[in-house]
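Appendix B. Extra example for self-study. Work through it before the problem class; the solution is given directly after the inputs so you can check yourself.
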Amino acid sequence: MTAQELAVETVGLTKRYKDKVALDGVDLAVPRGTVHGLLGPNGAGKTTTVRVLATLTDPDGGEARVAGHDVVAQPREVRRSIGLTGQQTAVDDLMTARQNLTMFGRLFRLSKADARRRADELLEIFGLTEAAGRSPKKFSGGMRRRLDLAASMILAPQVMFLDEPTTGLDPAGRREVWEAVRNLTSQGTTVLLTTHYLDEADKLCDRISLIDHGRNIIEDTPAGLKRRIGDERLDVVAVDPADLAGLAELVRQATGADPALDEDAATLSVPVPDGVAALTTVAVEIRAQGIEVADIGLRRPTLDEAFLHLTSRTGAAQEETR
Amino acid sequence: MTTTTHHDGRRNGRTGRHSLGSATAPTAQPGAGLLWAARDCWTIVLQEFTHLVRQPSTFAWQIGFPVVMVLMFVYVFGSAMDVTGQGAGEGYVDFAMPGMFAMTMAFGFMDTAYAVTHNKEKGFMDRFRSMPMASSAPVTGRAVSDVIRAAIDLAVIVGVALLIGWRAGGSSGPRCWRSRCCCGCASH
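Solution. C-alpha cells for the complete assembly:
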C-alpha cells in the first residue's frame, strides 16, 4: 500500500510527559475510507496519539502523517484536512446550535453566507434542524455529541478523529452517535476512533489497534482479534466455589490449556480448538469425579476477553524482560 | 471562494467517495495572515457578544454589582464617615470613586480568567487549535471583547458617579489630581 492511500500513518511515535512515557513507539497505517479503532485501557496512550495527530501536541520522536501531510512540519495543511471531536463536547452552551455551527464555519474561514448555508446543511445531515434555534445546554447527550460532530465536519474533512465519542452517553445516545459515525464513513471519510468500549470497536471499526503502555500490541480486524484466542471457549460454572481449583486441574488435564478462573462467578473458562470433543471429555471427567457443576457449555469469545488476554500477556512479558 | 453544497442524504456504502457535502475554505494568500487573524479575532468577539445578548443576566450582574457597591459605600458607609471635616458623608464620594473604578476593572480580570479556564476545561481550546484558524484569535478575541465590556462597565459607573455628585475636575488640586490619576489608570 502506498503512502498516498494511507489517511493516517505513524512510525515509531514517542512522547514523554516529564517522567511518564505516554507513547513508546506507536505505528499506525490507516487506509483511506476506513474506520480504525484505538482500543486500550485508560492511560494507554490513545488520547496522546490523537493529540499528536491533530497537531495539538508535538511528538518527541517518530513520524506522523495525516492526509499526506507531516503533523510537525505542515500543521496548517493537516488542520485543513481533519476534524477533531475530543472527549468533552466542545460546543458553546450560550449560543444556539445554529449559531455554534455558523461561528465554527466563520473560523474555518467561510464567508458569512457560506457559513450559514453550511450550518443549515449540517443541521439537516445530523438531524438537528428542529433543534437549531435551541441551546445545546438543553440537548440530550446524543444530540450534543451530534452537534459536536457537525462542528468538526464544517469542511467535510478527509480524516475525523473521535476521542471516546460515546463516553458518558446512555445506550440511546450511543446508538445515535454510532449512526452518525457510520454516516460519515459511508461518505468516504476516514475515521480514527479511540474507545475503551469493545462492543463499540466491534460494531464500528474495520480494524482495531490494541494499545497499552504507549505501544500498539496488536492490529487486526475485530473478527481476527476474536480468532486469536481460539475459536471457542469452554465455560464451566461450579456450584461450590471451593470446587473451582479441582475443576481447573481437571480441565487442564483434559484440554492441555490453562483455564482462566473467575472466583466471584465460580466460573472457569478455557479456549478450546475442538469444542465438542473438549466438552465431552470434560463432562465425562466431571461426572467421574462426582463434582457438582451448575453449567457447562461452549461459546464464542467476546472482544473483552481478547483484550484482557492480549494486554495481560504483554504486561506479563514486559514484567519478565525488566 | 468556492463552495460546493451537495448532500444526497443516502448511504453510498463504505466504498462511496462522495463527500458529506463540503465547503472548501480558500487557501491562504501570503501576506493575508494578519487580515485573517483580525477576522478570526472578530468572530470570537462576536461570539462573546452573542453570549451577552443570549444571557443578559450575566452582563446585568457585571454592571449592576459595581453600581450597588458604589451606592453602598457612598451612602451606607460614607454617611458614617467625616472625611473632609465638613460633616459625615460630605465629599466622601470624591474619595470613594477612584477606588470603585479600580475595583470594577479588577473584577473584569476575574471574568476573563474564569472564561479562559472554562474554555480550556471544556475542550474549546483543543478544538480551536485543531482548526485552521489564527492561533492568536482566542486570545486577541477575548482581550478585545473584554476591553469593550470593561469600557461599558466604566462608562456606566462614571455615569452613576456623576449622578451622585462626583466630579472629575473638582476644585481642590491634590484631590482632583488623585481622582484623575486613578480614573486614568483604571481605564487603560
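Self-check: Chain B touches chain A through 45 residues (CB under 8 Å). If your reasoning did not lead you there, revisit section 3.
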